[in-house]
Protein backbone atom coordinates (compact mmCIF):
# COMPACT_ATOMS: atom_id res chain seq x y z
CA UNK A 1 0.00 0.00 0.00
CA UNK A 2 1.71 3.21 -1.09
CA UNK A 3 0.59 6.77 -0.75
CA UNK A 4 1.78 8.69 -3.78
CA UNK A 5 1.22 12.06 -2.20
CA UNK A 6 3.13 11.25 0.96
CA UNK A 7 5.91 9.50 -0.86
CA UNK A 8 6.31 12.54 -3.05
CA UNK A 9 6.40 14.89 -0.09
CA UNK A 10 9.00 12.79 1.64
CA UNK A 11 10.90 12.44 -1.59
CA UNK A 12 11.14 16.14 -2.02
CA UNK A 13 12.72 16.27 1.41
CA UNK A 14 14.95 13.34 0.63
CA UNK A 15 16.77 15.23 -2.09
CA UNK A 16 17.80 17.74 0.56
CA UNK A 17 17.56 15.89 3.85
CA UNK A 18 17.77 12.12 3.81
CA UNK A 19 20.26 11.27 1.07
CA UNK A 20 23.24 11.40 3.40
CA UNK A 21 21.60 8.81 5.66
CA UNK A 22 21.38 6.14 2.99
CA UNK A 23 24.95 4.77 3.30
CA UNK A 24 24.42 4.42 7.07
CA UNK A 25 21.94 1.59 6.55
CA UNK A 26 24.54 -0.49 4.73
CA UNK A 27 27.11 0.31 7.40
CA UNK A 28 24.67 -0.66 10.14
CA UNK A 29 23.77 -3.94 8.42
CA UNK A 30 27.43 -5.01 8.49
CA UNK A 31 28.03 -4.18 12.14
CA UNK A 32 27.67 -6.61 15.02
CA UNK A 33 25.29 -5.50 17.79
CA UNK A 34 27.15 -3.05 20.05
CA UNK A 35 27.51 0.60 20.95
CA UNK A 36 28.61 1.59 17.46
CA UNK A 37 25.57 -0.02 15.89
CA UNK A 38 23.29 1.58 18.49
CA UNK A 39 24.74 5.00 17.73
CA UNK A 40 24.10 4.50 14.01
CA UNK A 41 20.54 3.42 14.74
CA UNK A 42 19.99 6.56 16.83
CA UNK A 43 21.30 8.71 14.04
CA UNK A 44 19.07 7.04 11.48
CA UNK A 45 15.96 7.42 13.66
CA UNK A 46 16.55 11.05 14.55
CA UNK A 47 17.53 11.83 10.97
CA UNK A 48 14.22 10.49 9.69
CA UNK A 49 12.04 12.06 12.39
CA UNK A 50 10.53 14.58 9.97
CA UNK A 51 8.96 11.62 8.11
CA UNK A 52 7.17 10.53 11.28
CA UNK A 53 6.08 14.09 11.82
CA UNK A 54 4.66 14.35 8.28
CA UNK A 55 2.61 11.24 8.80
CA UNK A 56 1.41 12.20 12.30
CA UNK A 57 0.25 15.50 10.85
CA UNK A 58 -1.93 13.75 8.30
CA UNK A 59 -3.89 12.03 11.05
CA UNK A 60 -4.01 14.92 13.46
CA UNK A 61 -7.56 16.01 12.61
CA UNK A 62 -9.04 12.72 13.76
CA UNK A 63 -9.41 13.61 17.40
CA UNK A 64 -6.21 12.16 18.81
CA UNK A 65 -3.74 14.42 20.55
CA UNK A 66 -0.92 15.37 18.20
CA UNK A 67 1.77 14.37 20.70
CA UNK A 68 0.33 10.87 21.00
CA UNK A 69 0.26 10.51 17.25
CA UNK A 70 3.81 11.69 16.89
CA UNK A 71 4.84 9.19 19.54
CA UNK A 72 3.14 6.32 17.72
CA UNK A 73 4.55 7.41 14.36
CA UNK A 74 8.00 7.54 15.90
CA UNK A 75 7.61 4.01 17.22
CA UNK A 76 6.68 3.03 13.66
CA UNK A 77 9.80 4.77 12.38
CA UNK A 78 12.00 2.92 14.88
CA UNK A 79 10.47 -0.37 13.77
CA UNK A 80 11.09 0.57 10.17
CA UNK A 81 14.75 1.38 10.84
CA UNK A 82 15.16 -1.95 12.64
CA UNK A 83 13.47 -4.00 9.95
CA UNK A 84 14.82 -2.30 6.86
CA UNK A 85 17.07 -4.51 4.75
CA UNK A 86 19.25 -2.37 2.42
CA UNK A 87 20.19 -5.46 0.37
CA UNK A 88 16.69 -5.65 -1.04
CA UNK A 89 17.51 -2.64 -3.17
CA UNK A 90 14.44 -0.60 -2.18
CA UNK A 91 14.56 2.94 -0.87
CA UNK A 92 14.14 3.28 2.89
CA UNK A 93 11.26 5.72 2.52
CA UNK A 94 9.15 3.43 0.38
CA UNK A 95 9.53 0.87 3.14
CA UNK A 96 9.22 3.25 6.10
CA UNK A 97 6.10 5.13 5.05
CA UNK A 98 3.76 2.12 4.93
CA UNK A 99 5.31 0.81 8.16
CA UNK A 100 4.68 4.06 10.01
CA UNK A 101 1.20 4.42 8.53
CA UNK A 102 0.42 0.90 9.67
CA UNK A 103 1.52 1.72 13.19
CA UNK A 104 -0.66 4.83 13.33
CA UNK A 105 -3.65 2.96 11.88
CA UNK A 106 -3.26 0.23 14.44
CA UNK A 107 -3.14 2.86 17.15
CA UNK A 108 -6.48 4.23 15.99
CA UNK A 109 -7.98 0.81 15.77
CA UNK A 110 -6.78 -0.50 19.12
CA UNK A 111 -6.44 2.43 21.42
CA UNK A 112 -8.71 5.03 19.89
CA UNK A 113 -11.41 3.64 22.14
CA UNK A 114 -11.10 4.33 25.84
CA UNK A 115 -12.81 1.10 26.68
CA UNK A 116 -12.06 -1.87 24.48
CA UNK A 117 -15.10 -2.64 22.38
CA UNK A 118 -15.38 -5.60 20.00
CA UNK A 119 -14.35 -4.77 16.47
CA UNK A 120 -17.86 -5.49 15.21
CA UNK A 121 -19.30 -2.79 17.50
CA UNK A 122 -16.58 -0.29 16.64
CA UNK A 123 -17.51 -0.64 12.99
CA UNK A 124 -21.22 -0.52 13.81
CA UNK A 125 -20.68 2.70 15.72
CA UNK A 126 -18.75 4.20 12.83
CA UNK A 127 -21.51 3.26 10.38
CA UNK A 128 -24.21 4.66 12.66
CA UNK A 129 -22.49 7.97 13.24
CA UNK A 130 -21.70 8.40 9.54
CA UNK A 131 -25.31 7.61 8.65
CA UNK A 132 -26.60 9.95 11.33
CA UNK A 133 -24.65 12.91 9.98
CA UNK A 134 -25.63 12.10 6.39
CA UNK A 135 -29.29 11.90 7.38
CA UNK A 136 -29.07 15.09 9.42
CA UNK A 137 -27.98 16.86 6.24
CA UNK A 138 -30.78 15.36 4.17
CA UNK A 139 -33.52 15.91 6.74
CA UNK A 140 -32.39 19.21 8.18
CA UNK A 141 -32.79 17.76 11.69
CA UNK A 142 -31.27 15.02 13.78
CA UNK A 143 -32.18 11.50 12.64
CA UNK A 144 -34.01 8.95 14.75
CA UNK A 145 -32.69 5.43 15.34
CA UNK A 146 -35.36 3.95 13.07
CA UNK A 147 -34.39 6.28 10.23
CA UNK A 148 -30.76 5.27 10.67
CA UNK A 149 -31.75 1.60 10.70
CA UNK A 150 -33.69 2.02 7.45
CA UNK A 151 -30.81 3.94 5.89
CA UNK A 152 -28.23 1.30 6.77
CA UNK A 153 -30.45 -1.72 6.28
CA UNK A 154 -29.84 -2.79 9.88
CA UNK A 155 -32.31 -3.80 12.56
CA UNK A 156 -33.17 -1.21 15.18
CA UNK A 157 -31.44 -3.29 17.87
CA UNK A 158 -28.24 -3.19 15.86
CA UNK A 159 -28.47 0.57 15.59
CA UNK A 160 -29.06 0.83 19.36
CA UNK A 161 -25.86 -1.12 19.95
CA UNK A 162 -23.99 1.21 17.64
CA UNK A 163 -25.25 4.30 19.46
CA UNK A 164 -24.46 2.90 22.87
CA UNK A 165 -20.97 1.82 21.84
CA UNK A 166 -20.21 5.48 21.28
CA UNK A 167 -20.59 6.21 24.98
CA UNK A 168 -17.22 4.66 25.65
CA UNK A 169 -15.24 6.05 22.72
CA UNK A 170 -13.72 8.66 24.89
CA UNK A 171 -13.53 8.63 28.67
CA UNK A 172 -13.14 11.76 30.69
CA UNK A 173 -9.87 12.34 32.41
CA UNK A 174 -9.93 13.29 36.07
CA UNK A 175 -7.36 15.93 35.24
CA UNK A 176 -9.44 17.40 32.46
CA UNK A 177 -10.04 21.13 32.63
CA UNK A 178 -13.83 21.51 32.44
CA UNK A 179 -14.07 24.91 30.85
CA UNK A 180 -11.58 27.52 29.81
CA UNK A 181 -13.47 30.01 31.94
CA UNK A 182 -12.46 31.77 35.09
CA UNK A 183 -12.20 28.81 37.47
CA UNK A 184 -10.39 26.35 35.29
CA UNK A 185 -9.95 23.60 37.83
CA UNK A 186 -9.53 19.98 36.88
CA UNK A 187 -12.34 17.45 37.26
CA UNK A 188 -10.64 15.71 40.19
CA UNK A 189 -10.49 18.95 42.16
CA UNK A 190 -14.24 19.29 41.91
CA UNK A 191 -15.20 15.92 43.27
CA UNK A 192 -16.41 16.73 46.73
CA UNK A 193 -16.07 14.80 49.95
CA UNK A 194 -17.35 15.74 53.38
CA UNK A 195 -14.72 17.79 55.15
CA UNK A 196 -13.24 15.89 58.09
CA UNK A 197 -13.20 19.10 60.08
CA UNK A 198 -17.00 19.50 59.86
CA UNK A 199 -17.58 17.64 63.11
CA UNK A 200 -14.93 19.85 64.64
CA UNK A 201 -16.91 22.95 63.69
CA UNK A 202 -19.93 21.65 65.53
CA UNK A 203 -17.95 20.91 68.70
CA UNK A 204 -16.21 24.22 68.44
CA UNK A 205 -19.49 26.10 68.19
CA UNK A 206 -20.99 24.23 71.17
CA UNK A 207 -17.87 24.64 73.24
CA UNK A 208 -17.42 28.35 72.77
CA UNK A 209 -20.20 29.53 75.09
CA UNK A 210 -19.15 26.93 77.67
CA UNK A 211 -15.55 28.08 77.54
CA UNK A 212 -16.66 31.65 78.04
CA UNK A 213 -18.43 30.67 81.25
CA UNK A 214 -15.27 29.16 82.79
CA UNK A 215 -13.40 31.04 85.48
CA UNK A 216 -10.31 32.80 84.10
CA UNK A 217 -7.82 30.44 85.79
CA UNK A 218 -9.48 27.26 84.52
CA UNK A 219 -9.72 28.70 81.02
CA UNK A 220 -6.06 29.62 81.05
CA UNK A 221 -5.06 26.10 82.13
CA UNK A 222 -7.21 24.57 79.42
CA UNK A 223 -5.77 26.81 76.74
CA UNK A 224 -2.19 26.15 77.82
CA UNK A 225 -2.82 22.41 77.85
CA UNK A 226 -4.65 21.99 74.56
CA UNK A 227 -3.71 24.97 72.44
CA UNK A 228 -0.24 25.59 73.89
CA UNK A 229 0.41 21.82 74.08
CA UNK A 230 2.17 22.23 77.44
CA UNK A 231 2.58 19.50 80.05
CA UNK A 232 0.83 19.74 83.38
CA UNK A 233 4.15 20.49 85.11
CA UNK A 234 4.88 23.36 82.70
CA UNK A 235 1.41 24.73 83.29
CA UNK A 236 1.84 24.41 87.07
CA UNK A 237 4.96 26.53 86.72
CA UNK A 238 3.15 29.18 84.68
CA UNK A 239 0.14 29.61 86.90
CA UNK A 240 1.93 29.07 90.22
CA UNK A 241 0.10 25.93 91.34
CA UNK A 242 1.26 22.38 92.04
CA UNK A 243 1.08 19.84 89.23
CA UNK A 244 -1.46 17.86 91.30
CA UNK A 245 -3.69 20.91 91.55
CA UNK A 246 -3.48 21.53 87.79
CA UNK A 247 -4.36 17.91 87.13
CA UNK A 248 -7.41 18.10 89.39
CA UNK A 249 -8.56 21.40 87.89
CA UNK A 250 -8.16 20.07 84.34
CA UNK A 251 -10.13 16.91 85.12
CA UNK A 252 -12.91 18.93 86.74
CA UNK A 253 -13.06 21.47 83.89
CA UNK A 254 -13.15 18.76 81.23
CA UNK A 255 -15.93 16.91 83.03
CA UNK A 256 -17.88 20.16 83.30
CA UNK A 257 -17.46 20.78 79.56
CA UNK A 258 -18.49 17.23 78.64
CA UNK A 259 -21.63 17.50 80.72
CA UNK A 260 -22.29 20.92 79.17
CA UNK A 261 -22.06 19.53 75.62
CA UNK A 262 -24.27 16.59 76.50
CA UNK A 263 -26.90 18.94 77.92
CA UNK A 264 -26.97 21.38 75.00
CA UNK B 1 -25.69 9.16 43.90
CA UNK B 2 -23.57 6.19 42.87
CA UNK B 3 -26.45 4.97 40.70
CA UNK B 4 -26.69 8.11 38.57
CA UNK B 5 -24.92 6.54 35.59
CA UNK B 6 -27.54 3.80 35.68
CA UNK B 7 -30.45 6.24 35.68
CA UNK B 8 -28.80 8.14 32.85
CA UNK B 9 -28.31 4.97 30.82
CA UNK B 10 -31.90 3.89 31.41
CA UNK B 11 -33.10 7.31 30.30
CA UNK B 12 -31.02 7.11 27.14
CA UNK B 13 -32.20 3.59 26.38
CA UNK B 14 -35.86 4.55 26.80
CA UNK B 15 -35.54 7.61 24.58
CA UNK B 16 -33.71 5.53 21.99
CA UNK B 17 -36.31 2.79 21.95
CA UNK B 18 -39.10 5.37 21.76
CA UNK B 19 -37.34 6.51 18.60
CA UNK B 20 -36.46 9.99 19.79
CA UNK B 21 -33.92 11.54 17.45
CA UNK B 22 -30.21 11.38 18.25
CA UNK B 23 -30.13 14.86 19.75
CA UNK B 24 -33.28 14.30 21.80
CA UNK B 25 -31.75 11.13 23.24
CA UNK B 26 -28.81 13.17 24.51
CA UNK B 27 -31.27 15.79 25.80
CA UNK B 28 -33.30 13.25 27.76
CA UNK B 29 -30.13 12.04 29.46
CA UNK B 30 -29.22 15.61 30.30
CA UNK B 31 -32.71 16.34 31.66
CA UNK B 32 -32.68 13.32 33.95
CA UNK B 33 -29.17 14.15 35.07
CA UNK B 34 -30.02 17.75 35.85
CA UNK B 35 -33.30 17.01 37.63
CA UNK B 36 -31.63 14.38 39.80
CA UNK B 37 -28.73 16.61 40.73
CA UNK B 38 -31.11 19.39 41.80
CA UNK B 39 -32.80 16.89 44.11
CA UNK B 40 -29.67 15.14 45.35
CA UNK B 41 -28.34 18.52 46.48
CA UNK B 42 -31.25 18.78 48.88
CA UNK B 43 -31.55 15.15 49.95
CA UNK B 44 -30.80 13.76 53.37
CA UNK B 45 -27.61 11.72 53.04
CA UNK B 46 -28.20 7.99 52.81
CA UNK B 47 -31.81 8.25 51.66
CA UNK B 48 -33.10 7.05 48.33
CA UNK B 49 -33.65 8.91 45.12
CA UNK B 50 -36.80 7.47 43.58
CA UNK B 51 -37.05 7.74 39.81
CA UNK B 52 -40.05 6.78 37.70
CA UNK B 53 -40.36 6.75 33.96
CA UNK B 54 -43.79 6.59 32.34
CA UNK B 55 -43.93 6.02 28.65
CA UNK B 56 -46.89 6.83 26.45
CA UNK B 57 -46.73 6.92 22.68
CA UNK B 58 -44.75 10.05 21.84
CA UNK B 59 -44.11 11.19 25.40
CA UNK B 60 -41.82 10.31 28.26
CA UNK B 61 -42.74 11.41 31.76
CA UNK B 62 -39.96 11.35 34.29
CA UNK B 63 -40.57 11.83 37.99
CA UNK B 64 -37.87 11.93 40.64
CA UNK B 65 -38.25 12.44 44.37
CA UNK B 66 -36.05 12.58 47.47
CA UNK B 67 -36.52 13.09 51.19
CA UNK B 68 -35.15 16.53 51.89
CA UNK B 69 -33.74 18.25 54.97
CA UNK B 70 -36.34 20.98 54.85
CA UNK B 71 -39.49 21.91 53.01
CA UNK B 72 -38.12 24.82 51.00
CA UNK B 73 -39.34 24.48 47.42
CA UNK B 74 -36.74 23.75 44.73
CA UNK B 75 -34.96 26.96 43.83
CA UNK B 76 -36.20 27.79 40.34
CA UNK B 77 -33.81 30.66 39.78
CA UNK B 78 -30.74 28.47 39.35
CA UNK B 79 -28.95 27.78 36.10
CA UNK B 80 -29.76 24.09 36.44
CA UNK B 81 -33.48 24.77 36.60
CA UNK B 82 -33.29 27.20 33.67
CA UNK B 83 -31.55 24.54 31.64
CA UNK B 84 -34.23 22.00 32.50
CA UNK B 85 -37.05 24.36 31.54
CA UNK B 86 -35.45 24.99 28.17
CA UNK B 87 -35.21 21.28 27.40
CA UNK B 88 -38.60 19.91 28.47
CA UNK B 89 -42.17 20.39 27.31
CA UNK B 90 -43.59 20.57 30.81
CA UNK B 91 -42.08 20.70 34.26
CA UNK B 92 -43.38 21.00 37.80
CA UNK B 93 -41.81 20.75 41.19
CA UNK B 94 -43.37 20.36 44.59
CA UNK B 95 -42.99 19.48 48.23
CA UNK B 96 -45.09 16.96 50.13
CA UNK B 97 -45.02 17.88 53.82
CA UNK B 98 -47.45 15.23 55.02
CA UNK B 99 -44.60 12.91 55.95
CA UNK B 100 -41.93 12.87 58.67
CA UNK B 101 -39.37 14.10 56.15
CA UNK B 102 -40.57 16.47 53.42
CA UNK B 103 -40.67 14.83 50.00
CA UNK B 104 -39.25 16.98 47.21
CA UNK B 105 -40.14 16.05 43.68
CA UNK B 106 -39.61 17.15 40.10
CA UNK B 107 -41.83 15.95 37.26
CA UNK B 108 -40.99 16.52 33.64
CA UNK B 109 -42.58 15.67 30.35
CA UNK B 110 -40.68 15.34 27.07
CA UNK B 111 -42.52 14.93 23.79
CA UNK B 112 -40.97 13.28 20.80
CA UNK B 113 -40.00 15.89 18.25
CA UNK B 114 -41.73 18.53 20.37
CA UNK B 115 -38.92 20.03 22.35
CA UNK B 116 -37.16 21.79 19.53
CA UNK B 117 -35.32 24.75 21.01
TrEMBL record, chain A:
Record-annotated RNA polymerase sigma-70 region domain positions: 44-113, 127-175, 210-258
Tree of life domain: Bacteria
Keywords per UniProt: DNA-binding, Sigma factor, Transcription, Transcription regulation
Pfam families (UniProt xref): Sigma70_r2, Sigma70_r3, Sigma70_r4
InterPro entries listed in its UniProt record: RNA_pol_sigma-70_dom, RNA_pol_sigma-B/F/G, RNA_pol_sigma70, RNA_pol_sigma70_r2, RNA_pol_sigma70_r3, RNA_pol_sigma70_r4, RNA_pol_sigma_r2, RNA_pol_sigma_r3/r4-like
Database matches in NCBIfam families: SigBFG, sigma70-ECF
Name of this chain's protein: RNA polymerase sigma factor SigF
Amino acid sequence: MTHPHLVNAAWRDSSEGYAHLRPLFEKMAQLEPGPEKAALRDELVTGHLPVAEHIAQRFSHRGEAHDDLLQVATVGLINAVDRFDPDRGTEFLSFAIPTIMGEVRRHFRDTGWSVRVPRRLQERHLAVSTASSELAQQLGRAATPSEIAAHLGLSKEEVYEGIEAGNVYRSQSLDEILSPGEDNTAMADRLGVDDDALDGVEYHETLRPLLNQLPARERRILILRFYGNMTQTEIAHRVGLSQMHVSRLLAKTLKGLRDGIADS
Amino acid sequence: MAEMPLVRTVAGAIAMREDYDIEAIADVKLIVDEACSLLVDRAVAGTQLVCRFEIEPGTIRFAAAVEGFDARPIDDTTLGWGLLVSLVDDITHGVDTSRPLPLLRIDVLVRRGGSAP
